[in-house]
What does this fold into?
Amino acid sequence: MTAGKIGKALLWILGFCGFLALPILLSSAQKNGTSPLSSLLPTVAGWKVAEDVQRYDPQTLFEYIDGAAEAYIGYDFKELIVALFQGNRPKTSITVEIYDMGMGLNAFGIYGAERFPEGRFLPIGVQGYQEEGSLNFLAGRYYVKLMCYEGGDKNDEFLRLFADSIAGKIKDRGDLPALLRVFPRGGLVPNSEKFILRDFLGFRFLKNGFLASYKTDGQEFDCFLIDGQSAEEAKAVFEQVALSFAKSGRAPEKNSVGLGFKDAYLQNVFVARTGRFLCGVARIKDGQEALGVKFLEAMVRALKGGA
It folds into this structure.
């Protein structure tokens, strides 16, 4: 082989290897590239960023939270930046995670999936909660998670400083979803409300569902609400729900506002449709059917009242 041909072969090999390495280079650049989310990073006296800010998208999120990435992606996660801040104390540091979920409802969805009703809640952003060494909060389309290391008795103070700084930079903080007001107040477990974007109640065809837990009269059960987007769509979904439950072999029973079903997992279930919405009650035990109908009627009244 002549020198010219050898040179061309080497160039081809180098080019091909460069092509193979391109995804790795792009991934690295993407992780370390600048992001609009960087403008939300906190400004706290005595603290500075200790490492390059990391950036993740739906394709690379598993590199940071391998076991939990699917849950975030299930709520249409858009982007995450992670920054490590070092304080004046030698070993004290805080990790800042800012998740852009694309819209406030999806941010509430993942936030609600991770909070516990018995948590220590704080008035930060829309709402926040604090645990030992960590503070998470919801604000607009963002879900922010903070973790403090080696802060000692100053842990809580440091976390609040960081949270307040970030929340102050988010212009549109939004609010909790307005549809949560449809849920009856009596017996509601505070801060148990959730938003589930897909596969609601275990049905692949159900989406955009809200769920809340209840404890009353010695009973534990759930109320739910589904936004069908239109009356026509809600009607079609209601019929599909009825058909799915009917497959158990038990005919649905009519009540004052809707239908009642029996399900092996959800126990006694009561469902009604009002305009573009479906509402219901699930996990009602045998003998307590009147309680389920009572809560179903309350949700129908709330929906008709323009809630």
Remarks:
- Residues 178-304 form a domain with the Protein Transport Mog1p; Chain A fold (CATH 3.40.1000.20).
- The chain has two domains: 33-169, 178-304.
- The radius of gyration is 25 Å.
